[in-house]
Design goal:
Elements lengths: L3 E6 L5 H14 L4 E5 L4 H7 L7 H8 L3 E4 L14 H9 L3 E7 L12 E7 L9 E5 L2 E4 L5 H18 L3 E6 L7 H13 L6 E6 H10 L7 E5 L1 H12 L9 E5 L4 E5 L16 H14 L2 H17 L13 H18 L1
Parallel strand pairs: 1-2, 1-3, 3-12, 5-10, 8-9, 8-10
Antiparallel strand pairs: 4-5, 4-11, 6-7, 11-12
Helix pairs in contact: 1-9, 1-11, 5-6, 9-10, 10-11
């Protein structure tokens, strides 16, 4: 296999330490990658300034790589500051499908029972289209852009994924009783795509009812693909992460036709910098998904299985999973298991 190039953004806060540990896990499975360090994020911007969190040299390296791995980055919640790193890259490379698996780990079942479903999110438009305007000191507006093309293609990703997994249902989230035009168009597009997939049911949920059911009886969504627009699914996938322990276990894949970015779903957690406390699972699983995307399927499976085994054994896990291990200890345990699984496979 031709050597793959990965643009590596270590990020802000705990990002660099998490990414460094992730790289140790990846190196344990003997993958030949060319890693291209790329500065980006709030900490870079605070030193260099400018209109973007991403410098030109990083855009060049993204353009000349096969995929990007991004550690957690910080985005300022202030008007007039740059767009987030990941939203900028999603928009630039049309990374329209965001995939977040929500699956319980053996011996680490969350408070509401065992779950297994996948959140699929349209990643380029909706409330995150970037169409915002301050009309006056007292009035600001945001345009929620929904298109048939984007809705149909993310629906097709969802139905294809259900078909590949042998699952029988796609659940579409909406609020079409209030957002009659935008969510009405989204549902029209999803229903059109659903007609092409015999044997896979489409079920439609109001977003607020879905939130209630997710707390009341999450098992009703097991082996379902949950499909939603950008903001709705951003929120619901993070709520769903609580079902498997914490957001520290959930990976996030951003997939387009020609490029992809992989990252942990959580933020940069600056208050934990240097404390060796943050769960490395999400970062490690994101790397496993990246290796799978790049064609290193055996190595990715070794990392998936090693992570599952370390968590199931409950000997070397971080505090949020009921353990007392540090970030580095847990990552090193996963690396050691992954190395052994790679040798024996």
């Amino acid at each position: 296999m031709e050597r793959r190039k990965v643009a590596l953004i270590k990020g802000d806060g705990t990002g660099p330490e998490l990414v460094d540990l992730m790289l140790k896990v990846v190196s344990s499975v003997d993958v030949d990658l060319e890693l291209i360090p790329c500065p980006a994020g709030l900490e870079w911007w605070e030193k260099n300034g400018g209109s973007s969190f991403i410098p030109e040299e990083t855009w060049y390296n993204l353009e000349h790589s096969d995929a990007c791995f991004k550690g957690p980055t910080t985005t300022l919640p202030k008007p007039g500051t740059p767009r987030s790193v990941v939203v900028s890259i999603r928009q630039k490379y049309d990374l329209y499908a965001n995939i977040r698996p929500i699956k319980s780990f053996q011996n680490n079942i969350g408070p509401l029972g065992e779950v297994d479903f996948v959140c699929v999110r349209e990643n380029t438009e909706g409330m995150y289209s970037g169409l915002e305007h301050r009309l006056s000191d007292d009035v600001a507006i945001t345009v929620r852009k929904i298109t048939r093309r984007a809705s149909e293609r993310i629906a097709r990703v969802s139905f294809d994924m259900a078909q590949e997994r042998g699952w029988k249902k796609v659940v579409a989230l909406h609020k079409a009783n209030i957002l009659k035009e935008s969510d009405g168009l989204f549902l029209e597009a999803v229903r059109t795509v659903a007609n092409d997939y015999t044997g896979i049911a489409l079920e439609e949920y109001f977003i607020d009812n879905f939130g209630q059911q997710l707390v009341k009886n999450p098992q009703r969504f097991n082996q379902n693909i949950i499909l939603g627009t950008n903001l709705f699914m951003d929120l619901m996938s993070e709520v769903a992460s609580g079902l498997v322990g914490s957001i520290g276990t959930v990976s996030s894949s951003n997939i387009g036709e020609k490029y992809a970015l992989f990252e942990p779903a959580h933020g940069s957690a600056p208050k934990y910098v240097g404390l060796n406390k943050v769960n490395p699972t999400a970062t490690i699983l994101a790397a496993a998904h990246m290796l799978e995307y790049l064609g290193y399927k055996d190595q990715s499976q070794s990392i998936f299985r090693a992570t599952e085994q370390v968590i199931a054994e409950k000997k070397v896990t971080t505090y949020d999973m009921g353990g007392s291990a540090g970030t580095s200890q847990m990552a090193e345990a996963i690396a050691e298991k992954a190395r052994g699984l790679t040798i024996t496979s």
